[in-house]
Specification:
alpha/beta; Rossmann fold; three-stranded antiparallel sheet; 7 helices; 9 strands; globular
């Protein structure tokens, strides 16, 4: 039986008088892929940021690994890879130059080299073209390479299929299927259920900040 990696109990997150999350309780097991579905404003990105330790619950408790408070979770940051909806890349730099910069932020942990991270996502480390000239699929893979540098155990991906063509989505899904190996836990937010279904062990649907359903998937990869 897989061990529990994250546990949320009755988590609510308020922004002023607006509740982005409402009494969310969910347990995430190591080595599984979770897909978060929901309309804009359903709370998907907020839930991901709570899991990343970037937001602390207003009410309820969130434990990631063995950490509870946001600052404690932040201390586990090298074990968490968070890929936001924004690419967080420098457009004027090549993929290799971007990753060399970000690798410098992880001086205290054993990380992949920039070359290893780019090869892991199927990109050529020798490519000198600026990231600003990449296709959306290549930009997303470069962003993924960035978060893979510290070899995270928990991988949080906010809309990784956004604005990608069908072939790029297929390649990304196959890539994520490979990354799930080795007991890594992946949490994906998306509007595209069909795209993520091949790797979804569990599908969690949020509606107005609440858990509307939490059902097993049928992964085929």
């Amino acid at each position: 039986m897989a061990s529990t990696l994250a546990q949320l109990d009755q988590v609510s997150r308020l922004f002023g008088r607006f509740a982005a999350l409402r009494k969310v309780s969910v347990s995430l097991a190591a080595g599984r892929c979770y897909v978060l579905l929901g309309e804009n404003g359903a709370g998907k990105s907020t839930l991901l940021r709570v899991l990343a330790g970037l937001l602390e619950p207003t009410l309820g408790t969130a434990r990631i690994f063995t950490a509870g408070k946001a600052e404690e979770i932040a201390e586990q940051r090298a074990r968490i890879g968070y890929m936001s909806h924004a690419p967080m890349l420098y457009d004027e730099l090549s993929a290799m130059e971007n990753l060399r910069y970000f690798a410098g932020l992880y001086r205290t942990c054993s990380c992949l080299t920039p070359e290893e991270a780019l090869l892991a996502v199927g990109l050529d480390p020798a490519l000198t073209r600026p990231v600003g000239q990449y296709s959306q699929g290549m930009r997303q893979r470069t962003s993924l390479a960035r978060v893979l540098l510290p070899v995270p155990e928990l991988l949080l991906l906010d809309e990784p299929f956004s604005n990608m063509d069908v072939e790029s989505v297929r390649q990304m899904v196959e890539l994520l299927a490979g990354l799930r190996q080795g007991n890594r836990t992946i949490v994906i937010t998306t509007h595209q259920r069909d795209s993520a279904a091949p790797i979804a062990d569990w599908i969690l649907r949020l509606q107005a900040g609440r858990v509307a359903s939490f059902e097993p998937g049928e992964p085929s990869l």
